[in-house]
Amino acid sequence: MAQQDILNKAGDYNLETCEIVSYRLAENNLPRTIDIKLITGSIELTENIFDTCMIGKLQVYDSQDVRTILPITGMDKLNLKFSTPGMNGVNFTEESGKQFHIYKIEHVSQDKGNQRSQGYDIFFTSKEYYFNFMTKVSRAYEGPIEFAIEDILRNKRYLNSTRSLTYEPTKTNAKYVIPNLRPFEAIKFLSNQTVSKKYNNAGYVFYETPAGYFFRSLESMYAMNGTVGRPHKFEYFYQISNAGNSPEDEMHSIIDYHLGKPINTLENMDRGMYANKLTVHDAFNKTIKTHTFDYYKTFGDYFHAETTQGNKTFVKQLTPYVPFDDTKKDISQFADSKTMVVTETSKVHNSYEFTPAKDTLPIITSQRQSLFNNILSLQVHGNSLLGAGDMISFDLPLMRPVGDGEKQQSNPYISGRYLITAIKHTISADTGKYQMALACSKDAVKEGYIAETVAYQSKKETPNAYDIYEDDERMMSNVTVSPVDYT
């Protein structure tokens, strides 16, 4: 396939390199390498802000038994380079200083039409995933947590990575002892102790994209420098595709969309998004303290996917403010919805203090659950500039008929800014198309719901309780039972 510098039509792609590098050396003492572009039916690569490494899959049709002749053993590497024409993209080749590693082959099946051909799936991932299963971290870290994260990533005893690291500075200055954990487990532990330097949130995520590794808070994805909402990187529209559209216009159109779960109030209550209660036992001071979290009161303390003119918003909660039934309370005032108990010990280290759980756990609990609302799945044309953790905008019209001369209106709640939580890149040789499946979420609505301070009181049925035995006696008193002769 000829390489392009200009996008001629949406879905075009450049696949420059797709080759397997064997663990075996050739006669020139260089690794044996085989180009598999022509036998590759599809390429998939997934990145996710909640996964530490990218994972991919090749579907191949092999009529030369490359799997055996090379052979592919699980100790091989993959050179892979592809992109949208005119854009940067995925570049995992020896020249770039990074390569994927092949770790699994599955679904080997013989071609019924040609008994000497076979199809199978080749799975690959980043080098750091291998090191994660070969090493353990057992040491103490003190000072800013981002220094510990970089050491675990760079240290040859741990992940031994040379990939770039983009991190958000923290204000966590503590000493933590890592008790013989795998490197990614250690990073996850430290991430949950982290407080942002410029935001009021807590809890970081550590993830990989084609651009490198990232260690940051969710709020840093929504905003910039702690002061203003982060601009969205790309716009998508729900529009009918037609041959007259330019390639640039088609790139902004969606192929398909699915709104998985706009809201689930019961789940949000159960998982502590609206309200939660944390009980902390301090073994050193011999104290027990209780801390409660209120979704509506604290909503404006943080940046969200939606802003008000670029600033923090106080009125765009996922659920409208209204007292529940006859309680005269809104649902964020029921802290027993989710209860948590932790034990902490003060003065463990002379110069350092652990990050108090009250400053992390309640906030993390609410913020993470908020991403399980307004789950949007978009199937779009391949755009290798986008990565997990980027912001996009999506305009969805109201699903109702439009009269002559009437302007199509956008959905005032579902439209707007979304965070890309995951991307699945797919290149298909059969269709000649590069597409992406975007998993998106937003923790706020585009336009705030109207608040109500008084709940409407509907008519209630009169409460009653009935004794089943008394009912049975009344029924039996009206029934004549004739004896049965069994002779």
Present the secondary structure layout.
Layout: E1 14-25, E2 31-35, E3 40-48, E4 55-62, H1 66-69, E5 76-83, E6 90-92, E7 100-111, E8 114-125, H2 127-134, E9 137-144, H3 145-154, E10 165-167, E11 173-181, H4 183-191, E12 204-209, E13 212-217, H5 218-222, E14 223-224, E15 228-229, E16 234-237, H6 247-251, E17 254-261, H7 265-270, E18 275-282, E19 287-294, H8 295-298, E20 339-344, H9 361-370, E21 375-381, E22 391-395, E23 416-428, E24 433-441, H10 468-477
Parallel strand pairs: 10-13, 16-22, 18-20
Antiparallel strand pairs: 1-2, 1-5, 3-4, 3-23, 4-8, 5-6, 5-7, 7-8, 9-11, 12-13, 14-15, 17-21, 18-19, 21-24, 22-23, 23-24
Notable features of this structure?
single chain, 487 residues, alpha+beta, 14-stranded mixed beta sheet, three-stranded mixed beta sheet, 15% helix
What does the model show?
- The chain is of the alpha+beta class.
- 15% of the residues lie in helices and 36% in strands.
- It contains ten helices and 24 strands.
- The chain has helices at residues 66-69, 127-134, 145-154, 183-191, 218-222, 247-251, 265-270, 295-298, 361-370, 468-477; strands at 14-25, 31-35, 40-48, 55-62, 76-83, 90-92, 100-111, 114-125, 137-144, 165-167, 173-181, 204-209, 212-217, 223-224, 228-229, 234-237, 254-261, 275-282, 287-294, 339-344, 375-381, 391-395, 416-428, 433-441.
- The N and C termini lie far apart (93 Å).
